[in-house]
Amino acid sequence: MATTAQLFEEPFDADEYIERLAWRTPGGGSKGGAEAFDPKRLLDEFENHIEELKQLDERIQRRVEKLEHQCHREAKEFAHKVQDLQRSNQIKEAADIIQKLHLIAQELPFDRFADVKAKIASKYHDLERQLIQEFTAAQRRGEIGRMREVAAVLLHFKGYAHCVDVYIKQCQEGAYLRNDVFEDTAGLIQRVNKQVGEVFSSPETVMAKLIQNIFENKLQAHIKEKLDETRHSDVEQYLKNLYDLYTKTTALATKLTEFNLGSDKHTFLSKLIKSIFSSYLESYIDMEREYLRTRGAMILQRYYDSKNHQKRPIGTGSIQELKERFRQRTNLALGPSIDTHGETFLSPELVVNLLQETRHAFERCHRLSDPSDLPKNAFSIFLLLVDHLCVEHIDYALEIGLSAIPSSDAKNANLYFLDVVQQANSIFHLFDKQFNDQLMPLISSSPKLAECLHKKKEVIEQMEVKLDIGIDRTINCMVGQMKHILATEQKKTDFRPEDENNVMIQYTTACSKVCAYVSRQVEHVRKSMDGKNVDTVLTELGVRFHRLIHEHLQQYSYSSMGGMLAICDVAEYRRCAKDFRVPLVLQLFDTLHALCNLLVVAPDNLKQVCSGEQLTNLDRNLLHAFVQLRVDYRSARLGRHFS
């Protein structure tokens, strides 16, 4: 029979227990049975069972001792808790009494109750100190309930503010272990927000005081260290640090608005930020401008040094003077002609660097400027960009490009000004994009918008005038080159061949070379221009091309076969004119082609041809002049048709 504690549960009968044990033992029954009574076997069973009972007794005894020990411990802990509660209550009672006594003592006359007042004050301060020490200890132990109790008692004491200060100091211990003070601050506020609400009766006041303490100490020290170390030694890094720190601080403030900091938390946080950055922001724009001025000059100088180029002084004539000289086609005082060896003196890399510096400046200006000063500050940055990019680089390149354009009578001249035009246009598109994307949002709702637009218009006009001058002179050079080809390649005998019956060519060599040259220039213009500028320039070139051919053809006299050859030349010129894709130019060459028919038409048909659709509206003197170019003009008495 297994020996367990359940066998001894009440009611317990010892005789019955022994009888049951004997009965279950084989040969142990008192009445015999299947097996004969065996006393030896019964004795062994009793001895074994007695041993089991001893072991059971030991186990039960150990358990009893364990339970007794646990009971004593819990009783002791309960007693301590009772004592703590009693002591806590005596503190509350004492605090209430001393608080009332302190208020009463304020009304007592000093001369009669000085000693009493001093004792009350001493007891008041002692109790206040004990409460703060108790709060500090409870905070270290993480006992939120005890902290709440003590804070509630201290609420009516002068030392309550000191209790809050202690809390603020202790909650920051170990909170700043990473390199990012802003992330650490956000994490700290997130962690203590719930605790502050559980401990203090006015959590919004405590949270505001905690944040103020962090801003005025931890953040301010960090920001001052970062900025002061570069303020006078590395202005570029200083401006980057200022922008970065201010951005992180405002981002942190935005996160903090999620918490209960009182009714006007936005103004509260703005004042904290201003208290940290005000001295830096006051001088920001001056440092920004000086940095951009120095940096821009360095970028420009580095580029020209890489080209081994010493910058020349450029003209300072007004836009109106340039326009008037261009209108009158007078010589422009652009300095002596120079050879640039194909260099445009325009650098995409330089432009990207200047625009990137300005983009960063606009971003900093937007972030760091007072809203009332933002348009003015942005405009001052824009003026520096205009000076460095538009005046010192693009305008200078245009001046150099103009000076490099050869005279119209130069032979085999290389015309690089169109390359300058192409690059200047590309650069100005980038300039215009930055103007629209980054400057306009900063000034669009201020009076500075008109100033910016006026300045931009002024810059555009000045560059356009110089571009127009350069393109005009370039076209003159192109026409001069055509004139040179015609002068050297066109022979008088081309249009009065010795053997009228043996002319095998389709058009003259001069015509072929001029057309090849013109085609190259048309392609060059298309690559260098964009939009309507292509048609404008090609129209001007086409008109001058036509005028040159028209005047050139009038220098020769034509036999019948020579007239046919002239018609073939003009047909080739007309085919070349189609490349211009300008209706006016094609129309001019169509008319010239019709005029050349007057060189070969039978005398009796002259009047009919002159009345044709393409010639009927032309001046009769012009028609007569072409007819006079025929070698048979006098012999055939062709003049009578125009009398």
Task: From the structure above, extract its key features.
elongated; 643 residues; mainly alpha
Walk me through this protein's architecture.
The structure is a single chain. This protein has 643 residues and is an all-alpha fold. It is elongated. It has 21 helices and no strands. The relative contact order is 0.04. The protein starts with 13 loop residues before the first helix and ends in a 16-residue tail after the last helix.
Q: Terminal Cα separation, in Å?
A: 160 Å
- Strand content is under 5%
Number of strand elements: 0
Rg calculated over all Cα atoms: 53 Å
- Helix/strand class: mainly alpha
Instruction: Characterize the main sheet.
Output: none
Family: Belongs to the SEC10 family.
Protein name: Exocyst complex component 5
Pfam family, one: Sec10_N
InterPro entries: Sec10-like, Sec10_HB, Sec10_N
